[in-house]
């Protein structure tokens, strides 16, 4: 049975012919069938010395045994009567009714005048006798410091007096609590003290401060029961003069094993109460009662400034378990095991299996519909070519409405995806991220009264998995090539005026494992021009070469294979015309380099004075994704990246540029790309999302035995090397949204080719950390939310 009690603590009457009136207070109790008046202080014990200033009903509570408990406010007295007796003895013609089963404290002495005993009351079991006891706040006792009194539920005798000390699972509000601000001045912010009993018998006090000045945070506190059905009770805390225009706000805090989550999962605002100022929304709270019988406790919020109390119905919580599987996780481009539906072209396929199950308590429809979004190769930047597509639509994305039975078995669906032809992309080293996100279709889940359920805010609404392209790198899928280049000229001497072309025979070989994105770079001297590749000699490989200019440097770039497999030997001829010699020229110099993309290992010849990005060394790109998994949004986060930049004044990882995706602004403590080296277009970021039906080159993937003898590794992190710092301020991110930082750098190989650094292995460590600074809630105290990660880049045996 549920009872409803509404009180008017300033209700007054007169017992004698005097101009003064006595605020004895009165209440109206509704037991579900009728309403009766209850005014225990309306008696013959009058004036301030008696019950004339009782203000009965200023705070009330019910016991589980159906007793009504209220306070006698002036000097202090607590009164409790049985609900059944109140209803049975009610007589509208009798102004003062005596109750036989009444429990009451003795009236306090004059020493306790204005101590405000009963300013707040609560019921709980504190002494282990199985009978509920009574708790009362006495905010002006103990020389106005305040205290809490606990009374025996049998006879209203005092059990304990606490001045904010440890008690059993008790929440104590101090709305006038003050703390010093950044200027050293005291400011009134309010505070909640959570007194939690420990299993060891001790107690723990956790304090939660408000941020908004004069909001009266913790003026009212109400237990809510288990709103989210996670096994821990939740609490509402009001700041009746907080929020926009001081209209008042109520914060919903979720319980957990260690107490309360310091971040509110929801904030109720009294914007509807703006017709009166101040509306004092949240001045009174009452929860832990399932009013609408949907299986979840509801909350009543009082706003005495507008003479209104509002019922907030708890939304049913749906818990979702999502699964995502990729099979196989190592993708072999040579195994073309399926066909494109429209062309019949053989492609390398893999399966993406996604699953959902959902359950929840209360009035929920038997079937729940979710909108599922799948995305392949998610971490590729916007507009970049994605290396995997779904077979049925040849797109990287797929949307699906998925209906599951509440509490039923997991429903799964499977799609086939495929790798693009190897000729369409060059990046085979970075993993392919498969991303799944789901959203509830609220329109199909709404109840007859218009109440929508809500997803469990503490479970991420997304899942991701990774797949790797099988490399010519052995069982560990990590490449360790050993590249060599030699060159021979068909002319030992060049004569001024000689028009005969010069042919360079280039011998390149890889004595290690596969080298991905391997290219031969030839710097053309001013005296020469590139004619082409020698193609009339079957002993020479017909390389695909192109002429390009970077920063006024003329280059010939030849593709050596992707990968250039282990054991490969390529002999190629490059023909040049030499016709611009002068008497000052004593030699004609051609510079040749082999460059490759490597995720962890590289061996490369390097220019001491690089002019182009490719002159520096192999590409090293990091992607840092900051994702808000909820439940709350945040309005400000600081992301800090520390990057190993120099060691003994020698460059390590040279940052070419960084890019952002999302509400984020970044700055660095050093200039990015101070040498103004020209940035090359990323070979893996072609802007074409269409599928091309081209045949793949035939090649065989060899495997090697994994060896563990890599020698000693020297770690170069921010403790030993000089670090460049990138600081990013991330703006508001809602649950499920993310901000991404892309860092593009080059390994400065000249540092590692130095004689003193040869024959050593190095681990370059960068670190990223974040710290939540602000939430979009004015009156909020929260725990320090932070995390960090370390990324290592390993360079083995630089020789």
UniProtKB/TrEMBL annotation:
Residues 685-706 are annotated as: Disordered. Coiled coil: none annotated. It holds the Pfam family FG-GAP. Residues 314-472 form the Integrin alpha first immunoglubulin-like domain. GO terms for biological process: angiogenesis; cell adhesion mediated by integrin; cell-cell adhesion; cell-matrix adhesion; integrin-mediated signaling pathway. It is a single-pass type I membrane protein. FG-GAP repeats lie at residues 102-160, 204-262, 266-329. Keywords: Calcium, Cell adhesion, Disulfide bond, Glycoprotein, Integrin, Membrane, Metal-binding, Receptor, Repeat, Signal, Transmembrane, Transmembrane helix. Residues 607-792 form the Integrin alpha third immunoglobulin-like domain. SUPFAM superfamilies: Integrin alpha N-terminal domain (SSF69318), Integrin domains (SSF69179). It is found in: Membrane. InterPro entries: FG-GAP, Int_alpha_beta-p, Integrin_alpha, Integrin_alpha_Ig-like_1, Integrin_alpha_Ig-like_2, Integrin_alpha_Ig-like_3, Integrin_alpha_N, Integrin_dom_sf. One of its GO terms (molecular function) is integrin binding. It comes from the Eukaryota. GO terms for cellular component: external side of plasma membrane; integrin complex. PROSITE patterns: FG_GAP. Residues 473-595 form the Integrin alpha second immunoglobulin-like domain. PANTHER family: INTEGRIN ALPHA, INTEGRIN ALPHA-V. Belongs to the integrin alpha chain family. This is Integrin subunit alpha V. It comes from Pelusios castaneus.
């Amino acid at each position: 049975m549920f009872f409803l009690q509404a009180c008017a603590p300033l209700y007054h009457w007169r017992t004698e012919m005097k101009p003064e009136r006595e605020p004895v207070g009165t209440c109206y109790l509704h037991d579900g069938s009728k309403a009766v008046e209850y005014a225990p202080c309306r008696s013959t014990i009058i004036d301030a010395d008696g019950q004339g200033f009782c203000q009965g009903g200023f705070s009330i509570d019910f016991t589980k045994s159906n007793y009504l408990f209220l306070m006698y406010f002036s000097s202090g007295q607590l009164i409790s009567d049985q609900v059944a007796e109140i209803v049975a003895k009610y007589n509208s013609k009798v102004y003062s009714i005596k109750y036989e089963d009444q429990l009451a404290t003795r009236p306090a002495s004059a020493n306790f005048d204005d101590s405000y005993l009963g300013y707040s009351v609560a019921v709980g079991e504190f002494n282990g006798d199985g009978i509920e006891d009574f708790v009362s706040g006495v905010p002006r006792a103990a020389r106005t410091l305040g205290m809490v009194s606990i009374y025996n539920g049998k006879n209203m005798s005092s059990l304990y007096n606490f001045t904010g000390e440890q008690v059993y699972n008790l929440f104590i509000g101090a709305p006038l609590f003050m703390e010093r601000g950044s200027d050293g001045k005291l400011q009134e912010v309010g505070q909640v003290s959570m007194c939690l009993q420990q299993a060891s018998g001790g107690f723990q006090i956790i304090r939660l401060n408000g941020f908004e000045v004069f909001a009266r945070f913790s003026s009212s506190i109400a237990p809510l029961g288990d709103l989210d059905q996670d096994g821990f009770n939740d609490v509402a805390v009001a700041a009746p003069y907080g929020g926009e225009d001081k209209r008042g706000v109520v914060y919903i805090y979720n319980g957990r094993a260690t107490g309360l989550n310091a971040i509110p999962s929801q904030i109720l605002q009294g914007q509807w109460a703006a017709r009166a100022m101040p509306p004092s929304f949240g001045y009174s709270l009452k929860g832990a009662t399932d009013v609408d019988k949907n299986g979840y406790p509801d909350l009543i919020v009082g706003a005495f400034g507008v003479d209104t109390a509002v019922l907030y119905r708890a939304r049913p919580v749906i818990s979702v378990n999502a699964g995502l599987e990729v099979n196989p996780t190592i993708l072999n481009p040579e195994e073309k095991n399926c066909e494109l539906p429209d062309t019949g072209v053989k492609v390398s396929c893999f399966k993406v299996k996604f699953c959902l199950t959902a359950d929840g308590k209360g009035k929920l429809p038997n079937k729940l519909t979710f909108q599922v979004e799948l995305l392949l190769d998610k971490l590729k930047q916007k507009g970049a070519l994605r290396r995997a597509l779904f077979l049925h639509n040849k797109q990287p994305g797929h949307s699906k409405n998925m209906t599951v039975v509440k509490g039923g078995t997991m429903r799964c669906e499977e799609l086939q995806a495929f790798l693009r032809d190897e000729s369409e992309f060059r990046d085979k080293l970075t993993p392919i991220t498969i991303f799944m996100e789901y959203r509830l279709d609220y329109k199909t889940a709404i109840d007859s009264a218009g109440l929508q359920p809500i997803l469990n805010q503490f479970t991420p609404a997304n899942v991701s998995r990774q797949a790797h392209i099988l490399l010519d790198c052995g069982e560990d899928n990590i490449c360790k090539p050993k590249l060599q280049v030699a060159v021979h000229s068909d002319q030992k001497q060049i004569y001024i005026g000689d028009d005969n072309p010069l042919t360079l025979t280039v011998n390149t070989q890889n004595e290690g494992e596969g080298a991905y994105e391997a290219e031969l770079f030839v710097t053309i001297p001013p005296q020469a021009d590139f004619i082409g590749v020698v193609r009339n000699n079957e002993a020479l490989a017909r390389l695909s070469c192109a002429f390009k200019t970077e920063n006024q440097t003329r280059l010939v770039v030849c593709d050596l294979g992707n990968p250039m497999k282990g054991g490969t030997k390529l002999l190629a001829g490059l023909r040049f015309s030499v016709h611009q010699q002068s008497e000052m020229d004593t030699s004609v110099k051609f510079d040749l380099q082999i460059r490759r993309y490597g995720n962890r290992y590289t061996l490369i010849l390097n220019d001491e004075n690089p002019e182009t990005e490719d002159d520096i060394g192999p590409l090293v790109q990091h992607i840092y994704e900051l994702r808000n998994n909820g439940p709350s949004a945040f309005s400000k986060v600081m992301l800090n990246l520390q990057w190993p930049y120099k060691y003994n004044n020698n460059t390590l990882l040279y940052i070419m540029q960084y890019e952002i995706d999302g509400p984020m602004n970044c700055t660095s403590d050093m200039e990015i790309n101070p040498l103004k080296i020209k940035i090359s277009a990323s070979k893996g970021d072609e802007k074409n999302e269409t599928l091309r039906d081209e045949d793949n080159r035939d090649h065989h993937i060899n495997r090697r035995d994994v060896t563990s003898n890599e020698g000693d590794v020297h770690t170069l992190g921010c403790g030993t090397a000089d670090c460049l710092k990138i600081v990013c301020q991330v703006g508001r991110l809602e649950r499920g949204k993310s901000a991404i930082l892309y860092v593009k750098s080059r390994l400065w190989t000249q540092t590692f080719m130095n004689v003193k650094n040869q024959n050593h292995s190095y681990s370059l460590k960068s670190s990223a950390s974040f710290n939540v600074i602000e939430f979009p809630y004015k009156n909020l105290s929260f725990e320090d939310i932070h995390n960090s990660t370390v990324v290592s880049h390993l360079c083995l045996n630089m020789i």
